[in-house]
Design a protein that fits this description.
The complex is a heterodimer of chains A (111) and B (114). Chain A is mostly beta strands and 111 residues long. Chain A contains no helices and nine strands. In chain A, the strands form two sheets. In chain A, strands 1-9-8-3-4 form a five-stranded mixed β-sheet, with no helix packed on it. In chain A, strand 3 (31-38) and strand 4 (45-50) form a beta hairpin. In chain B, the strands form two sheets. In chain B, strands 2, 4, 5, 6, 9, 10 and 11 form a seven-stranded mixed β-sheet that branches. With 114 residues, chain B is mainly beta. The mean pLDDT of chain B is 93. Classes of the chains: A mainly beta (111), B mainly beta (114). The interface between A and B is medium-sized, with 24 and 30 residues.
């Protein structure tokens, strides 16, 4: 799996958009970008994934650059409950592929 | 549809004892994964199983650790002769047999070795 690089921490005001960047310059053509988050001590939670097109679901939006070397996860209206470690993972989109968690970004949403 | 279930949630063992961690995947999911999170560290893949088969155990320590996912019943992660370094949170995840790597995680089992 391609290596990813994320800032170790970010802060965001409640109600504002949180934009979490991820670099994955060695991504290969058949690899997808997945985002998970882990709220303190809980099991990780899937957020969203994409290949090359921008994606949106009820939780977030994923913007992938045209060259696919970086992406941004957007939480449009962050709440205090969004405080968590966010992981950007590059992996093949086939069930059975291990997830390689890096150190992620600690997002703190402030009131 | 109940989520991934793990039990016990907390487990305390003395050095040299055995630890058995159980994971019931979501209904209809045939793929199970185990991950370990050591204190102040990230999540590390341990093993991937399908019913009655170990598919990828490249993340499992070579000794004392074993995993199974029988035809009937939960997946079991077994740690023999535990040592203090085994103290960690162990997470199980499951996924359906589809073309997606969306894995659903359980709440974890926190193992403490005294």
């Amino acid at each position: 799996d391609a290596k990813t690089t994320q800032p170790p921490s970010m802060d965001c005001a409640e109600g504002r958009a949180a934009n979490l960047p991820c670099n994955h310059s060695t991504i290969s053509g058949n690899e997808y970008v997945y985002w998970y988050r882990q709220i303190h001590s809980q099991g990780p939670q899937y957020i969203i994934h994409g290949l090359k097109n921008n994606e949106t679901n009820e939780m977030a939006s994923l913007i992938i650059t045209e060259d696919r070397k970086s992406s941004t996860l957007i939480l449009p209206h962050a709440t205090l409950r969004d405080t968590a470690v966010y992981y950007c993972i590059v992996t093949k989109e086939t069930s059975g592929s291990r997830l390689t968690f890096g150190e992620g970004t600690q997002l703190t949403v402030n009131p | 549809n109940a989520g991934v279930m793990q039990n016990p949630r907390h487990l305390v063992r003395r050095r040299g004892q055995e630890a058995r961690l159980r994971c019931s995947p979501m209904k209809g999911h045939s793929h199970v994964y185990w991950y370990r999170q050591l204190p102040e560290e990230g999540l590390k893949f341990m093993v991937y199983l399908q019913k009655e088969n170990i598919i990828d155990e490249s993340g499992m320590p070579k000794e004392r650790f074993s995993a199974e996912f029988p035809k009937e019943g939960p997946s079991i992660l077994r740690i023999q002769q535990v040592v203090r370094g085994d103290s960690a949170a162990y997470f199980c995840a499951s996924s359906p047999k589809t073309e997606s790597n969306e894995q659903f995680f359980g709440p974890g089992t926190r193992l403490t070795v005294l």
